[in-house]
Amino acid sequence: MSEMNFEQMLDEFSKTIRNGEVVEGTVIDVKPDEIVLNIGYKADGIITRSEYTNDSSVDLTTVVSVGDTMEAKVLKVNDGEGQVLLTYKRLAAEKGSKRLEEAFQNEEVLRGPVTQVLDGGLSVVIDDTRIFIPASLVSDVYERDLSKYKDQEIEFVLTEFAPRRRRIIGDRKRLLVAEKARKQAELLERISIGDVIEGTVKNITDFGAFIDLGGADGLLHISEMSWGRVDNPRKIYKVGQTVRVFIKDIKDTKIALSVKFPEDNPWNNAAEKYAVGTIVTGKVARMTDFGAFVELAPGVDALLHVSQISREHVEKPSDVLSIGQEIEAKIVDFNEQDRRISLSIRAITPAHPAAQEAPEQEEAPEEETTEE
Questions:
Q1: Collapsing DSSP states into helix, strand and coil, what is residue 288?
Q2: Contact (Cβ atoms closer than 8 angstroms) between residue 187 and residue 215
Q3: DSSP-derived secondary structure for 183-215
Q4: What pLDDT shows up at residue 362?
Q5: Which of 9-23, 80-94, 161-175, 207-221 has the lowest mean pLDDT?
Q6: CA-atom Rg of the chain in angstroms
């Protein structure tokens, strides 16, 4: 004990303390499992390791030094050996509980480490107080595996505070929803129909892909993924992929996207490229009983009528053609307004030798190919 004059000694010995009282002291000695405090009383105060922390492996000499000042709460004025038994962790828990109560009342945003991942949610500890965040309130989307949050610091607000029932509930979802709404409003303020923007593929479905535009998601429908035909969006896009799109439409908070840029429209120069009489090559895309549709380029299909497949009678296109087959044909009709092109293989197929016996028969196939 430090040297004191007579008046200080008199004050010390006349001072009284009570169980439950909060006292302040100076560390005069520290051991791995015990802290000794001068609390200005006739006896020193003792804080054992178990009353400092719940971690039984902590070496107190690594967390406290001689000369430090500390607040503690009196557990026993006389521990049986003439010393005052103090607790640091219980006082800290009380202060923490008080702070959390104020945070609950003020809807303050708290931040703390995830100490446990439980079946039903996360456990976060702030000032030695355990807060439970149910799985349904961890995120604004369903997450099957919460293990990624272990040891992370997360932000949340308290939605229930009942320490006597050991029920302190946190909500992270509310913050995420609010932040998402804020970013969405900001995005909608700065974008317009026709704007070109980059985004990240967030999710892919059978009918399209949802693109994260940095504040809101836009839908890139399967029909807007290519000028050609798309059977499966997953064959074109991957989650996490960066894509360049343009805003096709905005309705309230719904954003429709497209990658069918007008300057890339394959019909832009179709009148020259697919003029009547031009010989073209394409692939059979699909077939019906009356003919086959041939893809000349992505977004440009032409009809090969069953009567124009061969000079010989063909009952059904599938009898002589197959999907994916490459064919050569002549363009016999072009309608740019309706975007219709008609093809003929017959027109470029030499007539059978037997049909060349009479001059009239030689001209017949040519006349048929010019019919519209």
A1: coil
A2: yes
A3: HHHHHHHH--TT-EEEEEEEEEETTEEEEE-SS
A4: 39
A5: 9-23
A6: 41
Residue 30: strand pairing partners: 35
Burial of 300 (0-12, 13-18, 19+ CB in 10 A): buried
CA neighbor of 195 nearest in space, from 265, 245, 262: 245
Q: Which residue has the tokens 């360049």?
A: 244
pLDDT digits (tens, 9 = 90+) for 251-283: 988 999 999 999 989 998 888 899 999 999 999
pLDDT band at 361 (very low <50, low <70, confident <90, very high): very low
3-state helix, strand, coil in the chain (%, to 5): 25, 35, 35
Q: Give pTM, 2 decimals.
A: 0.59
Cα torsion 193, 199, 203, 206 to 10°: value is 50
Of 188, 217, 195, 204, the C-alpha closest to 261 is 195
Six token digits for residue 133: 């965040």
Distances (CA, A) of 32 to 36, 48, 60, 70, 264: 11, 9, 5, 17, 75
Q: What is the pLDDT of residues 313-357, one digit of tens each?
A: 999 999 999 999 999 999 999 998 899 999 999 999 887 665 555
Mean pLDDT of 215-237: 92
Residue 291 has pLDDT above 70, yes or no: yes
Whether the Cβ atoms of residue 239 and residue 277 lie closer than 8 Å to each other = no
In contact, 203 and 174? CB cutoff 8 Å: no
Is residue 307 left, alpha or beta, with left meaning phi > 0 and alpha meaning psi from -120 to 50? alpha
